Amino acid sequence: MNAMKMMVVPLTIGLGCGLAQAQAGTAAGATPSAIVPTPGRAPEVLPGKGLAQHDFVYSGESHERRIFIVRGGKVVWSYDDAAGKGEISDMVMLSNGNILFAHQFGLTEIAPDKSVVWNYEPPAGHEVHTAVPIGMDRVLYVENADPNAILRVVNIRTGAVEKELPLQVKHPVQVHPQFRRVRLTPQGTLLVAHMDIGKVVEYDSDGHELWSFPAPGAWSANPLANGNVLITDRLGVREVTRRGDSVWSWSRTDTPEYKFASLQNAWRLKNGDTVINNWVNEWTKNGDNAPGSAQAIEVTPDKKVVWALREWGPEVNFGPATTIQFLDQGDGPAEDVHFGDIR
After folding, report:
1. Domains of the chain
2. 302-315: per-residue pLDDT in tens?
3. pTM listed for this prediction
């Protein structure tokens, strides 16, 4: 396939550069809010250990395109691109410490010292909201576009497009709402959240549909270790089987003391708990989108909230929550996946 227009620069490895030490740890047990909370959006005193609950990488759709790494209850690295454009819709840290992220009008991989390892800018009118590394040399993404959205696998070292598949969309001219998350399964298939069509579809590496499930406004679909799929859509969060049975679900009414503006993603932890994000839209000014809401909650299988994250400043302002990668779950390298025979 043809080479693409992109930038390839030397790889930088290591964690010693560009680390912004910020004292953002919190005491064990219930923690008071870092700021005066927006009345009625979440309890004033939150359950859990604050930033010390988990080690994680955090980013969200905000004006500043922020990314944070939290270890041991402290922010040990941060990235802020206030001068750019677009919004971080997807992000993942690789085993070498580099971070790959999609920011609406491009894809970028940065090293720990924040130098650019690779960058891709789509044509005008196109958008990219998902980023999946395959090994250290390849990136899978979906480019929202008219007349067809395109799934691509590119070799970021050579610039070659190694796979390209069209994906169905409902309204080709409405590019922005076509797609957000795609994820690879351990079997090398692809789970796609068709946001504008309202369903989750599993495809093989040739683009053949293997499985689907209705999901209005589907934002994300994450494969689980038991073979089920964790779907986040307009209805809430559901764990569904390949037979189409819903074996676990959460909706806003299950935790009424936490007000959610918008759902985008959910993650299943090794202990069986589920973390659910709360996107607070900085572009729409109303009570639902006011800073001070909890950015994420962790619920047990019986839906008890055991942790809530709320970091809006003044020392550390995480901004809206879109993507959280947990570093304390014993998962293998994020890039250790394959798409068919592409590894």
Report:
1. 7-326 (2.120.10.30)
2. 999 999 999 998 88
3. 0.89
